[in-house]
Design goal:
Blueprint (H helix, E strand, L loop, with lengths): L3 E5 L3 H12 L5 E4 L2 H5 L8 E5 L8 H9 L7 E5 L4 H9 L4 E4 L4 H33 L3 H11 L4 H8 L3 H15 L4 H10 L4 H10 L9
Parallel strand pairs: 1-2, 1-3, 3-4, 4-5
Length: 220
């Protein structure tokens, strides 16, 4: 997937000049004259960042910032505007903007902001991939394995899990072994980290274990 700087401004002359300016520094640039046009782009999940004007007809830069924050691919935003003040810049930064610049910004400062935004996007995409992978791994576990995982991350001993799930301690040990072998994770702290990486709460993990078909109980 190509990394793209998405440039949004309703000033056509600014779009053309800025596209040339950024292209001359080696960036792949896609330009749009409105937020609506940007939202119809064919590659909404690709990496990159957004360089956008603040004041535009219909949807402005702040509305775009909110839309991106709620999307599956929340590209970092750099505002570049002809009109800005301290309250406006504070609002932008509180909303998660990477930077808030004026259109007379020095090229070095602009490039620095874009590079930070692209680096941030790369880190955030990696974190989302790690979370999705960890969640998928846990979602593939059987009900018994989920019970063992829940017991381990909540600090239960084998005897406590045996009482909780109405099975013998030998059976608990069997399912714990099945869990660790399947995940290839053998330390409790690493199992806890897997659940944290997946963004799964204890409450959600319990719900997953309760909802999964338990299957026949293996008795040792």
């Amino acid at each position: 997937m190509s990394t793209t700087v998405h440039l949004i401004d309703d000033d056509e002359s600014f779009l053309r000049s800025m596209t040339r300016r950024l292209g001359g520094h080696g960036y792949r640039v896609a330009s749009y004259s409105s937020v609506a046009e940007f939202l119809l782009r064919p590659d909404p999940e690709d990496p990159g960042c957004v360089l956008t004007d603040l004041q535009m007809p219909r949807r402005d830069g702040f509305e775009l910032q909110e839309i991106l924050a709620a999307s599956t691919n929340p590209l970092p935003v750099v505002f570049i505007t002809g009109k800005g003040d301290i309250p406006t810049s504070v609002r932008a930064m509180r909303g998660g903007a990477e930077d808030f610049l004026t259109k007379r910004v020095q090229t070095s400062e602009l490039i620095s902001a874009i590079d930070r935004a692209l680096a941030r996007n790369k880190q955030e995409r990696a974190a989302r991939l790690q979370r999705a992978t960890a969640r998928q791994t846990i979602e593939r576990l059987s009900a018994r394995e989920l019970q063992m995982l829940l017991g381990i991350v909540t600090g239960m001993q084998n005897k406590e899990m045996a009482e909780e799930y109405e099975m013998s301690e030998r059976t608990v040990k069997y399912y714990r072994t099945m869990l660790t072998r399947r995940l290839d994770i053998y330390a409790a702290v690493d199992l806890v980290r897997l659940v944290q990486d997946a963004g799964i709460s204890i409450k959600e993990l319990k719900s997953m274990a309760d909802a999964a078909p338990p299957g026949p109980l293996h008795e040792e």
